[in-house]
Design a protein that fits this description.
The structure holds 2 protein chains of 2 kinds.
Chain A (H helix, E strand, L loop, with lengths): L19 H10 L16 E6 L4 E6 L10 E3 L2 E4 L1 H10 L2 E4 L8 H9 L7 H12 L3 E4 L6 H5 L7 E3 L7 E3 L5 H7 L10 E4 L15 E3 L10
Parallel strand pairs in A: 1-5
Antiparallel strand pairs in A: 1-2, 2-4, 3-4, 6-9, 7-8, 9-10
Chain B lengths: L9 H13 L2 H15 L2 E4 L3 E6 L1 H10 L3 E3 L7 E6 H10 L4 E2 L9 H11 L3 H13 L3 E4 L7 E4 L10 E7 L4 H4 L5 H13 L3 E8 L15 E7 L4 H4 L9
Parallel strand pairs in B: 1-5, 8-9
Antiparallel strand pairs in B: 1-2, 2-4, 3-4, 6-7, 7-8, 9-10
Helix pairs in contact in B: 2-3, 4-5, 4-6
């Protein structure tokens, strides 16, 4: 009787069987200036003002289509989180000023992310950036894209006022009970960090629908302070 | 396993090997070291990595020495690099060519940096010992996350040669995260099988703390490292060639 266990077919372990995957994986691990990932730098610039107390940027001049899938709408204005703001700055799509009208540099923003104020940490930013550059639509879990999405559901809703700001109300996405259960799903004390939607040119903040994925960062260091 | 150089044919592979011999890793790294010292480069810490802004001439050196990953932004005059804790600490503490300090509230010296990194990553002391052990022997050490190991090591630049070993770092005592590996035979089979299918061997580095606590980076000098490779021995392949199979 032929024994087809891997123990007997030793030829499988020889040098000859090298998957092509090996070559392409290793290419990713090294780089030269020519083979760096190509980001789509933007020509159209928007302008925002960074509001330190909120940890968010308020859009002053809105240009380009990027705001369809970025930022939350409150009282007719768009506010972007630190990861959204930094991502757009890296692409050259956003000019960020402080309240005094001074330019805020990329370096300062990197330091803000590293300091873990504004609710983000470096790993989360990298995740955000990676998914966004692939075309996904990413928003913070539990933060409504627009208050219209809550009003349209005719269900009672909790409006939480965050500590950082009394200006912006963060609504919770509890339109349907399953959604609510899903949203409160905890894995080993972790709460979801991001809601991720598949790329969608018809995305509407007033009716985003359910996210395709919930993203949990497995090392939630910024809760440990 | 002999080193597998990269190239589309035998001649290209020989060329890759010759180039590597002409410009050994040790030379490239000392070039990087002097360049960083000259420019007095300074990095800043975040919770899992160190970032630095480098000029154009250093980008090439970082690439050749295989430290860090580039962070691509729209800024053309400077490029941001992201280093892992092990890479950054090696440049800062062992090679003494990088300063890492941010504000006045950040770590001010090696001891404080060590404590910070240790507090973010419990396994940092042992992983760092393994990283520096291999780097000092001129292996190129990169993250092994893609292969389910701690590090993978290359004899020279990854563009020229395939990596030969996947490294798992084990330790005695209190490092629960590290000790959890290779506990049972199926773990060993799993690791060797996976690595074997990408033509690498399993290299286990056992870091012995010799009773030292990780209070300061000075304790690194008292750690010892034992290296062991684990490969599957197949009896069929070890016999003389002209033995008749009697299955």
């Amino acid at each position: 009787m032929e024994d087809k266990t891997w123990g007997c077919s030793s030829s499988e372990d020889s040098d000859d069987e090298v998957y092509l995957q090996n070559a392409s994986d290793e290419e990713e691990l090294h780089f030269s200036s020519s083979s760096m990932p190509k980001l789509q730098f933007r020509n159209v610039k928007s302008k925002s003002c960074w509001i330190e107390e909120m940890g968010m940027g308020e859009v002053i001049e809105k240009n380009g289509k990027t705001w369809v899938t970025t930022g939350i709408v409150r009282s007719g204005k768009i506010y972007s989180s630190i990861e959204e703001t930094l991502y757009l700055m890296e692409l050259g799509a956003l000019h960020l000023l402080d309240k005094g009208g001074r330019n805020i540099s990329l370096t300062e923003m990197y330091e803000k992310v590293s300091n873990r104020k504004s609710g983000c940490c470096w790993e989360l930013f990298e995740v955000y950036r990676h998914l966004k550059s692939l075309g996904y639509i990413v928003g913070r879990h539990g933060v409504a894209w627009s208050l219209k999405s809550i009003k349209s559901s005719h269900k009672p809703v909790d409006l939480e006022v965050t500590e950082e700001s009394k200006l912006v109300h963060m609504g919770s996405k509890s339109e349907f009970s399953i959604n609510k259960l899903f949203g409160e799903l905890q894995i080993n004390d972790l709460r979801p960090d991001f809601d991720v939607y598949l790329p969608n040119s018809r995305f509407r903040k007033s009716f985003p629908g359910d996210p395709s994925f919930l993203l949990y960062l497995s090392r939630n260091l910024w809760n440990n302070e | 396993m002999a080193p597998r150089w990269k190239g589309k044919d035998a001649k290209a592979k020989k060329d890759a090997e010759a180039e590597a011999l002409k410009e050994p890793m040790s030379k490239i790294i000392s070039q990087l070291q002097s360049s960083l010292v000259q420019s007095d480069t300074c990095g800043f810490l975040s919770d899992n990595s160190v970032h630095l802004a480098v000029g154009a001439e250093q980008i090439d050196l970082f690439d050749k020495a295989c430290f860090g990953r580039p962070v691509r932004t729209v800024e053309k005059d400077k490029l941001w690099f992201q280093l892992s804790f092990e890479e950054a600490f090696y440049l800062s503490y062992s090679l003494k060519c990088l300063n890492i300090n941010e504000s006045d509230t950040g770590p001010q010296n090696d001891e404080e940096l060590w404590h910070y990194m240790k507090s973010q990553k419990e396994t940092f002391p042992c992983l760092y010992k393994a990283y520096s052990h291999l780097r000092m022997k001129n292996w190129v050490v990169r993250s092994g996350a893609q292969y389910g190991v701690d590090f993978i090591v290359y004899r020279h630049h990854p563009a020229r040669v395939h990596s030969e070993y996947g490294v798992l770092v084990l330790s005695d005592g209190d490092d629960n995260d590290l000790d959890g590996r290779l506990r049972v035979w199926s773990d060993v089979h799993c690791a060797t099988r996976l690595l074997g299918s990408v033509a690498k061997s399993l290299l286990v580095l056992h870091v012995n703390k010799n009773g030292n606590y990780n209070e300061s980076p000075l304790c690194l000098a008292n750690y010892s490292v034992e290296e062991r490779t684990i490969t599957r021995w197949s009896p069929e392949q070890c016999r003389e060639k002209d033995v008749v199979n009697t299955h």
